[in-house]
Each structure stands twice: as structure tokens, then as C-alpha cells.
């Protein structure tokens, strides 16, 4: 983090974004930025707008107002697949794999979106990632037959096929068996150490603060705290948000 | 102008019948979360049920209407029990796809079965009440008045059932959340059978009411089926009041379209296309339907 | 990539040639119609089974392909093969347009929209009888100057072969992968960098152009074209063929088409009951054998066992 070449370079920035669904304001003027090499934890009670913010950052939703910048470029109206090509990888709250495709095929889909790469190169890269994630022995199984934790790992692997600079993980530990959970944490730390930027959504403050270099807390569509895990822990607004709702 | 007036009155009757069909479709959608592509064929079956209740059982038209409604309910409930149960199983994958294909297949099967059993030639059941009524320039056959009047009663009955009876509340609860409904002691399976049966009964009632006006044929369900899609999407999938309003609106619009279309030889065919065109435009503008209630995703 | 085994292909080709030598012209006709429906069922399987787009507008494209070719030939005296090619191109363009319009429609909404599209096409063809001759049917010039069935048989066989090879090349290409990914999860496909818009347009364009080609060939083979070609019943027949065979395998869908068409003829004595039989067969297959009746057999024939589309 501190040893990255341009320490203050902002990788992704949301500028006063709003998103309403019917009568509910899910994201209400959020200002958020992540610098290259950070590992940001995004926490908040259920329904606080975390997933909506992630969807706005990845292009799965368009904001009603406000702007989004990626590496200094305006991407507010750029569709999700283009942002993926620019190195924005993500996982979903409930695993969204290509269920009736095999583990390897799931990995190939993002790889094949790079037209200049041959299938051999893509397959080799996919297998290397599967080995890193400990899924290589499962490559011919359909994705739907994996356990919950393995599905989370495969989603991470699929995102890695984009060679992402930014990874947005939406509740990567939800429904994961504790033994696999440590495996996921370990891999996130390794990937982070190799220079990738992370935004990890979780509603459990305890788990994420061991991992994150910075915590952002959302409640009712707004950012109510932003700082080091220690700062955020002692923040009264945060305690109120968790206790009050 | 007189022609337009008659057309408007006809359109109102047609709209009420469309609304009855569409309310059945929307009810099935709300409770079972599927679009029933065989709904038009249940409408067709209702017409034939009434016809044979009169011809074979010797019932007079109004009891035959009641018999047709009951028979349509039973037929729909039977079809639901035999074909749709995989929709409720946790192990069934791709439920939306299953719902589309099974009901589409059912529509083809019922239509061809009707072709054999009932024959390809149009049949016309006897009138409910023979004769016409005239008020100044406005002339309406008694059958249209009956269809409109009974149709309104049926719509009122549905609204009553949905808002005031335990069965209606159970259906509404299941339509909102299968799990929560089960927790408060409503058997979802019973609700599905009831919902699909009620949907079928409404389609059947409409078919029996329209029999003396348009006569019966095995393919008579195709157009009302598409009209019902138009209405349900216009009125909001799953919304009973929306379907009633939209149904009457579409009936009126189409009849006036026929009245004012410059080329009378083409007017009738294109009045059907008119509604379908509305449907396509709405879907292009709002791919999940207008005023769609909570359940956008079907699974 | 999964390679179709050479011996299987040779055996099928030999069987097709032997069949042509031994059967009567009546059964040649059945085979020709089967192969046309084979193209229709397989291309619908590509759209529905691979790309997950359950369109009920497929036969409307067959109809449009047929009418485009027939009318162009009638008006401009275009050579028939060029007319058929134009019908195919028109369907490709209209198909991609429908694919684009249907972008955000899912599941039942797409089915309703395409059903509505098919109805509009049918109503227009029925109503504009000054051009189309309405329900009585448009007389279409025959592709060949001969009443003999054998040349048509080999043309149909060639068309089927070309269509199947093209479709399976597409199914096993990058875009075939993207089709399956979109079928499984559109959001995840977009998150993986898949251009969902373009993939859907390709799927619709490809499937519709095959339908248009099949429809055009059908018109110039039979010699008469009615709007009924695009009716819900015809759509139901093709859906039944594809599902009975298996919608996630192109050869199985063709097998389903051949099976249904042959049974239809064999059961001619059963009269109209056979249509009910197919309807019921479709329902039973959907209810109890969702993968189709032929798909498992075909997979065993190809042995494969391992995943389809495996990368070597």
C-alpha cells in the first residue's frame, strides 16, 4: 500500500451518487474513493445500500445522479462489461455462477472475452488460478455441484481471469464453512500483496476489521464513517446504526 | 357518429370480457409466478363446456354457464396437479423455462384435442336471452348485455373473494411470500390449486359468455390469449384492479380503432393487431411491464 | 472442442444415401420435410437451449424468409437461390433487431413479446391478400424444374449438413460460450466482460437466418405458402421436436424433428389424434425427461462423457 509507486492515486471514485428504487433511496449522495493498493472494508447493517453501491461501481446499475470515475476516467455510463475489461472484477452476494457449465468453463468465459488470446493460453491461465484456489481437481464438475465455499472461491477465480486491478467482493464469507473461510482470507491477502485493490462488503464488523486497511460504514444509503478500523470501532454513529436499526 | 356509439358499447362489453380473462391470467401469475400460455385454451374449453351442457345435458343457458365455470375450475385444478407440481419443488431447475414450455405445450395439446373432439366447424350455442335492445341510435343484442352484465358480476365476485374471504387472503399471502404463508399455516399447495383453478374458472366463464356472440372454434382462444397478455402487462402483472381497468380500456380502444380505421375491409383484422402492437411498444419501453408489482423476477 | 467422431458421420452419410436408393418418393418427401424441420428445430434449440432465449417467434421468421424469397422472385424475377439468400439476410437483420429490442426482457416477457411479434406477422400476411393472397396461399415457383424428389432430397441434405456444421461451429466458438453464460446468468456474464447486447443480437440473428433459409427452401419445394407456417401450432410442432430430441444438443433436436415427422406419417391412420399425441408426448417429456429423449443417447454415441465444449 505505502510502497505503491503513486501512493495517493485514486483508482475508483463515486461522486455524490444517488440511486432510488421506487420510493426507497438505496444510495443517497455517497462520496467514496479507493486508492490503488487499498483493501477497503464496506460495512453496514442490512439494507444500508452496500450492494447497490457495488452495483453502481461495477456498472450493473446506473446512478440517478452523480458520477463514477475509474482511474481518472469518467465511467458513469460505461456498461458493466466494459468496466470488466478495464479490470473491475466482482463477486456477488449470492454466488452467481454459470451453474450448468463446468468449473473450468466458468473460468474460460471471462478469458474468452480477450479476443487476442488463444484458447490454450486462456485454459492454462484458468488452470493456474484454479490451482491457486485449490479447485483444480474439480475442473470438470458442473459449478452447481460445488459447496457454498467452493462456489465463492470459483467466483473469485472467475473474476481473476479478468486480471483485475480492482476486486469488489460482495459478502465473500456469507454461508462459508469456517475452515474454508480462512482459506478465502488467506487468498485475498495474497492477492492484495501482489498489488490488487479490494473493496470487500460484509455486514460483520468483527471479521472484516482483521483484514481491511480502511473501513467505510454505510447506513440508510449514506456513508456515516470512514477511517482506520480502530477509529471506526469507537465511532458513536456506527454503534448507533448497528444498535438502532 | 351512431356507428361509433354502437362500437363504443360493443367495446365496453368486449372490454369487460377481456378483463375477466385477464384477471384469471394475472391471478395465476400472482399466485404461481408463471405466465399461463394455455389460458386462451381454458377460455375455449369454457365455451364448449357450456355448449355441451346445453346440447347433451339439456340445461338451459344460465345453469349451463354455471356448469361451465365449475367444469373449467375442475379442469384447471386437474392440470395444475398433474403438470405444474415440479414448479414447487426445490430440486427443479430453471422453473421459469419449465412454466413457459409446459403451458405452451398444453395450449397446443388442448387446441388439437378440441379439434378432434369438437370438430373444426364453428358451433354456436343458443342465446342466453334472444332479441335486441334499442335506446335511440344505440342497438345492442341481449347476449352482449348478458355478457357485459354477468362479466361485471364475475369481476365483482373476484374482487370480493380476494379482499373479503379467507381463501382470497390465503391466495394473496401466498402471492406475496410462499414461505411466510406456510409459516402462518396456509398450505401453499392448496393455494396453487385454488389459484390455478380460479384462473381457469374465470377464463371458462368468459368463454361461455362469448359463445353465443362469436361462436365457438378450437382456435378461438389464441387472440383473447394475446389480448390478455396485453391487458395484464398494461395493468401490471399480478394486479387484479389493474387488469380490470386495462381490460375495459383495451376493449374500448380496439372497437373505436375498428370504427375509425379508414379501410373497413382491413379494420377487423388490424384491430387485433392494434392491441398486440400496444403490447410490443409497452414491452419495448418497459421490459418488465407497466406498474409491475414487487415480483419482477419469476424464480 | 468436442469433435464429432468421423465414423459416426460417415455412417450417417452412408445411411442417408442408402435410404435415398431404397425408399419410395413418398418417403423421400417425408425425409425432405423432416430435414427442413430439422434445421428449424436445431436453430430454435440454438436460441432457446444454448442462449436461453425462449422465443415463440421462430416460425414467424421461417414464414418471413419464405414470403420474402417468393415475393422477390415474383416481382424481380430474381434467380430462386438468390431469393432464398435474400430471405435469409432479411431474417438475419430482423432477427438481430428483435434480439436488440428484447434485450432487457426476461423469461415470460420475452416469450410474450415474440408470440405477439409472430401474431402481427401472421395477421399482416393474412390481411394483405392483394400481395400475399391471404389464407388461400401464395403460389411459389419450384426451385427445380423437375418433379423428381431425389434432387430435392440431396439439396435438403446438403442444407441440413451446412446449417448443422455452421451452428455447431458457432455453439463451440467464443460466442457459443457467451450464449451459455448468458443463459445461466446475465449479470455474471456482464461482470465477466461479456458484451451481452451483442451476444443476444448474434444469437437471434443466427437462429432467425437459419429459420428464414429453411422457410424459403420449404416454400420453393412445396410450391405454396400460407400464413399458417407462422402459426402457434407450427411453433408448437417445432418446440415439440426440439424438446423431444433435447434442446441442448443440435443433433438431438434434428433427431427429434425426424422422429416426430416420421411418426406423424406412420400414424396417419390415427388421423388428427396424432397431433394430440405429440402434445401429450411433449408434456410428458417436459414433466419427466427434461433433457429430451435423444440427447442422452447422442451423448453416449459420441461417448464424450466429459464436458461439452471442453478445451484441449
UniProtKB/TrEMBL annotation, chain B:
Domain of life: Bacteria
GO molecular function: transmembrane transporter activity
TM region positions: 12-35, 56-78, 98-123, 144-162, 190-216, 228-253, 273-292
Subcellular location per the Swiss-Prot or TrEMBL entry: Cell membrane
CDD domains assigned: TM_PBP1_LivH_like
GO annotation, cellular component aspect: plasma membrane
Membrane topology: Multi-pass membrane protein
Keyword Transmembrane helix carried by entry: yes
GO biological process, one term: amino acid transport
Keywords (A to Z) from UniProt: Amino-acid transport, Cell membrane, Membrane, Transmembrane, Transmembrane helix, Transport
Family recorded in the similarity comment: Belongs to the binding-protein-dependent transport system permease family. LivHM subfamily.
Protein name, entry field: Branched-chain amino acid ABC transporter permease
Phylogenetic lineage: Bacteria, Bacillati, Candidatus Sysuimicrobiota, Candidatus Sysuimicrobiia, Candidatus Sysuimicrobiales
UniProtKB/TrEMBL annotation, chain C:
Keywords in alphabetical order: Cell membrane, Membrane, Transmembrane, Transmembrane helix
Molecular function terms from GO: branched-chain amino acid transmembrane transporter activity
GO terms for cellular component: plasma membrane
Transmembrane segments: 30-52, 59-76, 82-103, 110-131, 151-171, 202-223, 235-260, 272-289
Membrane topology: Multi-pass membrane protein
Keyword Transferase part of the UniProt annotation: no
Keyword Transmembrane helix: yes
Intracellular or extracellular location(s): Cell membrane
Xref: InterPro entries: ABC_transp_permease (IPR001851), LivM-like (IPR043428)
PANTHER family xref list: HIGH-AFFINITY BRANCHED-CHAIN AMINO ACID TRANSPORT PROTEIN BRAE, HIGH-AFFINITY BRANCHED-CHAIN AMINO ACID TRANSPORT SYSTEM PERMEASE
Name under which the protein is recorded: Branched-chain amino acid ABC transporter permease
Protein species of origin: Candidatus Segetimicrobium genomatis
Amino acid at each position: 500500500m505505502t510502497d505503491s509507486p503513486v501512493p495517493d492515486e485514486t483508482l475508483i471514485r463515486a461522486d455524490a451518487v444517488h440511486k432510488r428504487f421506487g420510493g426507497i433511496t438505496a444510495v443517497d449522495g455517497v462520496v467514496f474513493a479507493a486508492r490503488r493498493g487499498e483493501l477497503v472494508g464496506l460495512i453496514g447493517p442490512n439494507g444500508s445500500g452496500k450492494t447497490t453501491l457495488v452495483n453502481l461501481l461495477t456498472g450493473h446499475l446506473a446512478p440517478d445522479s452523480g458520477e463514477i470515475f475509474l482511474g481518472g476516467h469518467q465511467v458513469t455510463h460505461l456498461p458493466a462489461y466494459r468496466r470488466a475489461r478495464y479490470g473491475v472484477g466482482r463477486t456477488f452476494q449470492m454466488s452467481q455462477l454459470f451453474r450448468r457449465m463446468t468449473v473450468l468453463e466458468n473460468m474460460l468465459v471471462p478469458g474468452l472475452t480477450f479476443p487476442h488470446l488463444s484458447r490454450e493460453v486462456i485454459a492454462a491461465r484458468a488452470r493456474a488460478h484454479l490451482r491457486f484456489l485449490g479447485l483444480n481437481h474439480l475442473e470438470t464438475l458442473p459449478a452447481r455441484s460445488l459447496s457454498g465455499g467452493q462456489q465463492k472461491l470459483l467466483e473469485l477465480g472467475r473474476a481473476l481471469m479478468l486480471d483485475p486491478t480492482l476486486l469488489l467482493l460482495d459478502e465473500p464469507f456469507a454461508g462459508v464453512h469456517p475452515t474454508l473461510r480462512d482459506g478465502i482470507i488467506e487468498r485475498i491477502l495474497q492477492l492484495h500483496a501482489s498489488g490488487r485493490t479490494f473493496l470487500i462488503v460484509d455486514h460483520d464488523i468483527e471479521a472484516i476489521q482483521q483484514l481491511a486497511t480502511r473501513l467505510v460504514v454505510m447506513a440508510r444509503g449514506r456513508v456515516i464513517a470512514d477511517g482506520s478500523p480502530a477509529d471506526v470501532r469507537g465511532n458513536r454513529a456506527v454503534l448507533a446504526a448497528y444498535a438502532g436499526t | 357518429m351512431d356507428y361509433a356509439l354502437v362500437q363504443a358499447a360493443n367495446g365496453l362489453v368486449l372490454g369487460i370480457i377481456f378483463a375477466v380473462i385477464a384477471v384469471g391470467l394475472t391471478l395465476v401469475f400472482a399466485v404461481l409466478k408463471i405466465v399461463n400460455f394455455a389460458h386462451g385454451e381454458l377460455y375455449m374449453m369454457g365455451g364448449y363446456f357450456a355448449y355441451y351442457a346445453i346440447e347433451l345435458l339439456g340445461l338451459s343457458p344460465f345453469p349451463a354457464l354455471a356448469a361451465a365455470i365449475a367444469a373449467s375450475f375442475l379442469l384447471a385444478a386437474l392440470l395444475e396437479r398433474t403438470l405444474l407440481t415440479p414448479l414447487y419443488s426445490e430440486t427443479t431447475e430453471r422453473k421459469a423455462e419449465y412454466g413457459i414450455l409446459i403451458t405452451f405445450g398444453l395450449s397446443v395439446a388442448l387446441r388439437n384435442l378440441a379439434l378432434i373432439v369438437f370438430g373444426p366447424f364453428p358451433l354456436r350455442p343458443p342465446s342466453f336471452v334472444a332479441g335486441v335492445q334499442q335506446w335511440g341510435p344505440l342497438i345492442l343484442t341481449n347476449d352482449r348485455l348478458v355478457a357485459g352484465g354477468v362479466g361485471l358480476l364475475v369481476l365483482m365476485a373476484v374482487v370480493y373473494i380476494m379482499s373479503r374471504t379467507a381463501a382470497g387472503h390465503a391466495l394473496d399471502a401466498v402471492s406475496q411470500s410462499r414461505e411466510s404463508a406456510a409459516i402462518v399455516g396456509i398450505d401453499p399447495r392448496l393455494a396453487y390449486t385454488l389459484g390455478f383453478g380460479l384462473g381457469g374458472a374465470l377464463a371458462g366463464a368468459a368463454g361461455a359468455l362469448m359463445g353465443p356472440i362469436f361462436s365457438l372454434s378450437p382456435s378461438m382462444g389464441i387472440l383473447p390469449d394475446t389480448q390478455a397478455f396485453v391487458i395484464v402487462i398494461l395493468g401490471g402483472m399480478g394486479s387484479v384492479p389493474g387488469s380490470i381497468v386495462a381490460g375495459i380500456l383495451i376493449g374500448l380502444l380496439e372497437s373505436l380503432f375498428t370504427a375509425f380505421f379508414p379501410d373497413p375491409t382491413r379494420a377487423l383484422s388490424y384491430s387485433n393487431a392494434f392491441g398486440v402492437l400496444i403490447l410490443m411498444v409497452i414491452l419495448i419501453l418497459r421490459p418488465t411491464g407497466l406498474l409491475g408489482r414487487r415480483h419482477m423476477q419469476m424464480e | 472442442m468436442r469433435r464429432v467422431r468421423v465414423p459416426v458421420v460417415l455412417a450417417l452419410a452412408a445411411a442417408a444415401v442408402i435410404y435415398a436408393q431404397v425408399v419410395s418418393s413418398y418417403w423421400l418427401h417425408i425425409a425432405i420435410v423432416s430435414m427442413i424441420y430439422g434445421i428449424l428445430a436445431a436453430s430454435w434449440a440454438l436460441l432457446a437451449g444454448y442462449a436461453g432465449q425462449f422465443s415463440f417467434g421462430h416460425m414467424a421468421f421461417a414464414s418471413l424468409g419464405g414470403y420474402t424469397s417468393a415475393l422477390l422472385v415474383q416481382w424481380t424475377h430474381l434467380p430462386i437461390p438468390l431469393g432464398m439468400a435474400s430471405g435469409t439476410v432479411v431474417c438475419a437483420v430482423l432477427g438481430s433487431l428483435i434480439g436488440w429490442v428484447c434485450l432487457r426482457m426476461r423469461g415470460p416477457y420475452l416469450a410474450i413479446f415474440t408470440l405477439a411479434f409472430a401474431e402481427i406477422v401472421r395477421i399482416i400476411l393474412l390481411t394483405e391478400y392483394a400481395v400475399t393472397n391471404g389464407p388461400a396461399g401464395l403460389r411459389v415457383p419450384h426451385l427445380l424444374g423437375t418433379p423428381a424428389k431425389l434432387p430435392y432430397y440431396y439439396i435438403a441434405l446438403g442444407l441440413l449438413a451446412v446449417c448443422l456444421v455452421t451452428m455447431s461451429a458457432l455453439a463451440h466458438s467464443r460466442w457459443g460460450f457467451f450464449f451459455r453464460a448468458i443463459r445461466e446468468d446475465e449479470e455474471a456474464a456482464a461482470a465477466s466482460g461479456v458484451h451481452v447486447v451483442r451476444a443476444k443480437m448474434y444469437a437471434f440473428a443466427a437462429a432467425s437466418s437459419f429459420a428464414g433459409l429453411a422457410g424459403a427452401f420449404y416454400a420453393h419445394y412445396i410450391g405454396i405458402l400460407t400464413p399458417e407456417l407462422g402459426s402457434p401450432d407450427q411453433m408448437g410442432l417445432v418446440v415439440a421436436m426440439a424438446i423431444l430430441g433435447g434442446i441442448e444438443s443440435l443433433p438431438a433436436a434434428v433427431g427429434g424433428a425426424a422422429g416426430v415427422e416420421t411418426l406423424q406419417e406412420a400414424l396417419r391412420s390415427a388421423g388428427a389424434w396424432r397431433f394430440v399425441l405429440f402434445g401429450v408426448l411433449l408434456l410428458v417429456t417436459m414433466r419427466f425427461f427434461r433433457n429430451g429423449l435423444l440427447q442422452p443417447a447422442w451423448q453416449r454415441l459420441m461417448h464424450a462423457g466429459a464436458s461439452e465444449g471442453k478445451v484441449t
